[in-house]
């Protein structure tokens, strides 16, 4: 009578291990797939640093311009 319960407990332990490792495997797979070019199926090299940071520089420049334009000049008395 105890034998079937031991088998179920073993299966449940394996299920918990699978559920714990599944997100790690999924994140690794997505990270790996991000480097594959979908059109050619070849490995895509990392972009050079100036291109990788261009988006951030554009966003910062945009926000600085918005702040500069939204500030009203101080009027003298």
**Count of runs of 4 or more consecutive helical residues:** 2
Bulk shape: elongated
- What is the mean predicted local confidence, pLDDT? 77
Structural class: mainly alpha
Strand share of the residues? Answer: under 5%
Query: How many structural domains does the protein architecture include?
Result: 1
- Give unreliable regions as ranges: none
Report the C-alpha radius of gyration, rounded.
27 Å
Our measurement of the CA-to-CA distance between the termini, rounded to an integer number of angstroms, reads 95 Å
Task: Walk me through what this model shows.
- The chain starts with a helix and ends in a 7-residue tail after the last helix.
- It is an all-alpha fold and 77 residues long.
- The mean pLDDT is 77.
- It is elongated and about 85 Å long.
- It has one domain (2-70).
- It has two helices and no strands.
